[in-house]
Amino acid sequence: MQLHGTSTIDHNGHLSIGGVDTVQLAKRYGTPLFVYDVALIRQKANEFKKAFDQHGIGYQIAYASKAFSCIAMIQLAEEEGLSLDVVSGGELHTALVAGFPPERIHFHGNNKSLAEIEMGMKAGIGCFVVDNFYEIKLLEETAKKHGKIVPVLIRTTPGIEAHTHDYILTGQEDSKFGFDLKSGQAEKAINQLLHHPNFRLLGLHCHIGSQIFETTGFIMATKKLFVFIERLKAQLGYTPDVLNVGGGFGIRYTEEDNPIPLSHYVNDIIHTVKEEVHRIGCEMPEIWIEPGRSLVGDAGTTLYTIGSEKTIPSIRQYLAVDGGMTDNLRPALYQAKYEGILANRANEKNSSLFSIAGKACESGDMLIWDLPLPEPNHGDLLAVFSTGAYGYAMSNNYNRIPRPAVVFVENGESQLVIKRETYEDLLSHDLPIKNALTNS
Ligand SMILES: Cc1ncc(COP(=O)(O)O)c(C=O)c1O
Ligand SMILES: N[C@@H](CCCC[NH3+])C(=O)O
């Protein structure tokens, strides 16, 4: 088993993260518990920064906060000098409350409401990533009302089908996101925005998908964008100041995944842009990227307590944990695969295969199939790795199961950054029916 970041096995055979014993973490904060290795997040941010710095160009690395958003995480992104991608009023609110500089916030989303647009404009965010014609209309009305000139990027779909799960593909023509290049929609949007007094068109955006292990898709998308830019240059005399090529850089969930260094994506994208800039003869744009998973994914580990067990002779041994699809929807949604170990007995030999079930009333609530483990005991601690992206972020209260707590660990210390939900929290929005009220 390959451990990530600062994770090690200590002399007691306990998994330790950030210099903190996970057995102690489970005792102190309870389970299920998300544990984030802060040093690993900083390391990933630095890998991106170093790669860009070598090229001497303008750039922004915008953390895609949909992967994991909370006040502490946004503050960590700010400490690391990142920009921020938000996709909703809720993510924007979190960023603003966290004190994130609004001018480095980019607002995404395929159906931004008027209220969200007002919120972003009032805050003075860095740009709106415009997704469709209806949004242009809302932005225009709001900008006029407030007398603003709004910086915008246009989200395009370049027609690239990256090798990943269908539900996390986004760059293909038949997508709910963005303006299609081929049908002329993107050009029409540019015509609407380019000389408009209330807009400042910064440039173009595309995002081809998520959990991508090759640079080919990014190279192809960049080339397609430049074919388009070449036409814009000839017809409108326009070339973009910014090219945002999205996120989607792959991480290791299991031994089947072989991620390439983050610098490879950056280098290949920048080389391609430089070549294309030379080819069509325009100024080098700033390059922006939007990594989510690759910044926080493998920095997250979930700790669960093992409870019930069921053996079906000659078929399967099930072990149930105190969480499941309510804190990690990815296996149920994408058949995503994970690895795990017994965090309190990490040095012991595996005896056989166990399938890890969640506690929700749903047959599909299985976290891991056929995981090799030592003979487990009730109360053992299971650590599931690489749960930092789209884990807590997609958590839910199915079966009225409270969301777990989240801790940051670094340099031998832990800090609670999201409190565990209580039953009172679950009921905090409930109201009794009228009759019950009048009868009481
Ligand atoms: C527009 C956009 N940017 C960035 C991301 C972040 O992707 P990832 O977490 O794979 O880096 C996504 C999610 O796929 C996205 O839709
Ligand atoms: N939620 C997806 C990726 C996000 C896609 C966002 N466009 C996942 O867990 O893999």
Automatic annotation (TrEMBL):
Residue sites binding substrate per the record: R293, R330, Y334, E362, Y390
Entry keyword Amino-acid biosynthesis: yes
Source superkingdom: Bacteria
GO terms, biological process: lysine biosynthetic process via diaminopimelate
First-level EC class: lyase
Boundaries of every Orn/DAP/Arg decarboxylase 2 C-terminal domain copy: 35-388
Active site (catalytic residues): C361 (proton donor)
Residue numbers bearing the N6-(pyridoxal phosphate)lysine modification: K66
Positions of the Orn/DAP/Arg decarboxylase 2 N-terminal domain: 40-296
Gene Ontology MF term list: diaminopimelate decarboxylase activity; pyridoxal phosphate binding
Sequence similarity: Belongs to the Orn/Lys/Arg decarboxylase class-II family. LysA subfamily.
Protein name in UniProt: Diaminopimelate decarboxylase
Species for this entry: Pueribacillus theae
Gene: lysA
